[in-house]
Amino acid sequence: MRAVQLIAWERPAELRDVPRPEPGPGEVLLEVRAAGLCHSDLHLMHWPAGTLPYELPFTLGHEVAGTVAELGEGTDGIRVGDSVLVYGPWGCGRCPRCSLGEEHLCQAKNGRPGGGCGLGRDGGLAEYVVLPSPRLAVPIGDLDPAAAAPLADAALTPYHAIKRALPVLRPGSAAVVIGVGGLGHVAVQLLRALTACRIVAVDLREDALRLAAHAGADVTLHADGLTPGEVRAAAGGRGAELVLDFVGVDATLALAAATVAAGGHVSIAGVGGGTFPMRFGAVPPETPVIITNWGTRSELAEVVELARSGAVAIEVDRVPLEAVPAAYVRLEAGDVRGRVVAVP
User: Which residue in 155, 209, 261, 331 could disulfide with 239, CB within 3.0 to 4.6 Å?
Assistant: First the structure.
């Protein structure tokens, strides 16, 4: 079968022919219907050897929807033909965190990142993928797989961050979304669906700002030359109760620190390699700053229900599997609106 694999560090991914996987005992073979491309895939291609504890090669793709094709011996709780979305952060399934559905915080990983679908283990940018357990499959019913696949990260990650901050997102509050790409435009939709807060979107790209406005942002601001004072004014004058940074470079992290309100939340989802200025005087008092990492299995099921209700609709750019390497080039150049999704 065909698969897009990372075969060497600091090199682009390649489309290769690899053997079709077979499910072992307790496992699930999924025929992939759609798999999303993510900026974190680009980081994997750019980082040097030793940055992450992964062995090469492996197939990329951590946003995956498909149809159950075959069950390994002893696998139950799922049927051949079921249409499902893959929960990407594969934990041990046994530690206290995993027992609560918080596999993104699996204690067996000892705080080390990744170790999930398309992250050190074969993912869904292929014709088939094996899931270690049926617990990692969330039913999607009649949702379009190409529209559903990005929910696994592009919707789950901002949903997890916003859900945590809901107690401070009261009517009259404000949220700032920095970076309105694949995750950011979904964050705007989620904020509009879940809260009555004022939504301010910040990006360098005019096309992204138009997408943010379409998604429900009250104010859109071009990031070039933007000052914290201008963002605070757009948020109502006192700063934002929630700042979501989907970029994560020094400039955006400094902007987040300077625009969050006292007692607000800063959630960092972008992995741009910047440093947050966590020092006295740079950040308002009692401001939690959290590096957001995916979400729980139950939250993914909630995100699916939001999509089924029409509250979340991810803009999708569909490409065939053979066009994925070129699509990564477009993604890195910022020439993507919404989410690129490969349809094998």
Answer: 261
